[in-house]
Design a protein that fits this description.
Elements: H1 3-18, H2 20-34, H3 42-54, H4 59-76, H5 84-98, E1 116-121, H6 128-141, E2 146-149, H7 156-169, E3 173-174, H8 182-195, E4 200-204, H9 212-229, E5 236-242, H10 247-259, E6 264-268, H11 278-286, E7 290-294, E8 302-304, H12 307-314
Parallel strand pairs: 1-4, 1-5, 2-3, 2-4, 5-6, 6-7
Antiparallel strand pairs: 7-8
Helix pairs in contact: 2-3, 3-4, 4-11, 5-12, 6-7, 8-9, 10-11
Length: about 325
Amino acid sequence: MGLFSFFSKEKKTELDKGLEKTRESVFSKLSKVIIGKSKVDEEVLDQLEEILVTSDVGVSTTLRIIERIEQRVARDKFLGTSELNQILREEVIALLHENNSGDGDDFDLPALDTPYVIMVVGVNGVGKTTTIGKLAYNFKLAGKRVILGAGDTFRAAAVDQIRIWAERVDVPLVSQGMGSDPASVAFDTIKSALSQKADVVIIDTAGRLHNKVNLMNELTKVKMVMHKLIPGAPHEILLVLDASTGQNAIEQAKQFIAATEVNAIALTKLDGTAKGGVVIGISDQFKIPVKYIGVGEKMTDLQVFNRKRFVDSLFQ
């Protein structure tokens, strides 16, 4: 067995464990739906709709999946319930593909002449700082030079937390302490990254949403500073959401997407919830790629989201 095969198998095992609660919830319900049924009829589809909605796939996305299955039933005339699992897999994969979610496989970066800049946004408590630490670890493992920026200067605890992660992963951290200007932290971080020829810069931001106008102004100012030093930066605005909050994660996404130009999503804490279907709903509703998923506590349990691997694990 080659090294790549070993890591792929390792990832799959971690993913299977992480999605266990969602998988058990979906399939215990699905098995009850098809008992005594030989074909996919209106009653089966109604019950499937309920299963997907209660798994936090979301109403609009669920209706889209059901409509696709209805079209296949009408086209193929007869579909047995034994085929329902495979049909579900195919339609969910197609939906994720249309939304450009799950194209990645490894912690890779575009080839640039400058550092690749990631600005991380999200409310407090979703696992934002932990995600930053795990991203730094995995990029470093992939041979990248990483620098972190402690841009959440609103809370002293946020600066302390990211410092602990920087020490744990053994990567440089640029910080100015609580109450300092986040744009100034971003400026210093990128200047440091340019001088050290870093490959990737990951900058934290404040997680408050109680005043959206101030949040928007602050994030805009941070982005402008980044862009002056590196045209096109930040290359990635990564929104971190807690999958275990289900539909609340979708509400948070709406607010942050309104406040800034989010172009990638990380969903954390999938291992602690039966609401894993929210990955599908968020990807479909916002047309923003889900790029990373958290399926456990270990550093390697933050994975690059791969739609086929995810759907295979969810519907195996």
